[in-house]
């Protein structure tokens, strides 16, 4: 028995000693101890099916056997773990393979900058580089956006509660409504064009426009392809750097490896993190378009830029993309999600599917209270799923790309049954909680 399990209250030390800022553990109050694939197990041996995937950091599930084996083998040979930006075989292997297997087939001639350990530092680097390259300071971002909570990225994040926590003005960013959202379509790109062509608009020519092609924390909304293409044209016409934040929507989560591929455009700067390491290890990248690498030596340093274990794991994750079985299975899972929620509609509930990201919008049928009740009920019955969006009224399903299709169906069935039960005020059958977890 572990020391944690031996105490009367296994969460007491967290309540007494961990900062008040903790959040997920308040929603999912279990002490989680192990995981494999899409199954997470608490210290009491109860298994949960994971529709959360580390907030998008575990696109290949927990402890993927192939990825884990490569990391364990590397460690067993005393491979270098920490190296800042020294040359290492692990970094060389990742650079060569990422460029050859991901960037070049998509016509991307971007350089790769290794940033600090989290996605927000890649966003910080992107904003700094855009300003350095253009000599301008202002930035355009969108309502519903989430880019991180460090100083620069928080300025481009629209959540007013998060912005208030900064304690200082964050006034260098102008926000436009996202072209799609709870209020319906909006001519955001036309509005931006109006600003740019009017010398009395009051809006300065910006250094950059930053967006998530698919807003994940905003409720799973994709910018229409035509709008994204027009935005690319505007940025080209006015010398504005276009930054695509692929931190949560990328690495296959919303269809292609990158969410912007669908529109056929190429961003100037691309931020990548979360699932790029394949195993949930900290890693973030800034992909820099040709002619934009304006950094001077040492302009954006960081102690943990050289996470060698993440490089090894990332190469192992790239192995999966070379396997037809993985690609076919991922496509089948995305199609299963789309068809399930198309066939199982509920009155007043809007569902938005983007690959392996599903937003179930409960705004019109109970909002935050209903979404919270669904999250709680699902967790009690063995499924981890979170809520997001305006007022936390959108259930966000993020299953692993390689989740067993039967388990994927059972998870969707539980969410649907829970919703139907709560909407009709009818009890949920006890059988709805059985056999959720994958066989591990």
Summarize the structure.
The chain is α/β, with parallel strands linked by helices and 440 residues long.
| Main sheet characteristics | 7 strands, mixed
Q: Pairing-aware structural class of the strands and helices?
A: alpha/beta
Distance separating the two termini = 21 Å
Give the averaged pLDDT, no decimals.
95
DSSP helix fraction = 25-40%
Total of DSSP H or I helical runs spanning 4+ residues: 15
The spatial strand order of the largest sheet comes to 4-12-11-10-7-5-6
Backbone shape: globular
Q: Care to describe what's here?
A:
- The protein is α/β, with parallel strands linked by helices.
- It is built from 15 helices and 17 strands.
- The radius of gyration is 22 Å and the shape is globular.
- Strand 2 (39-42) and strand 3 (47-50) form a beta hairpin.
Question: How do the strands and helices of this protein lay out in sequence?
Answer:
Blueprint: H1 3-6, H2 12-17, H3 24-27, E1 32-36, E2 39-42, E3 47-50, H4 53-56, H5 65-76, H6 89-103, E4 111-114, H7 119-134, E5 139-142, H8 151-155, H9 160-164, E6 173-176, H10 188-197, E7 208-211, E8 214-215, E9 221-222, H11 225-238, E10 241-245, E11 269-272, E12 285-288, H12 308-321, H13 324-343, E13 350-354, E14 357-361, H14 367-380, E15 383-384, E16 386-388, E17 394-397, H15 405-424
Parallel strand pairs: 3-15, 5-6, 5-7, 7-10, 10-11
Antiparallel strand pairs: 1-2, 2-3, 4-12, 8-9, 11-12, 13-14, 14-17, 16-17
Helix pairs in contact: 5-12, 6-12, 10-11, 13-15, 14-15
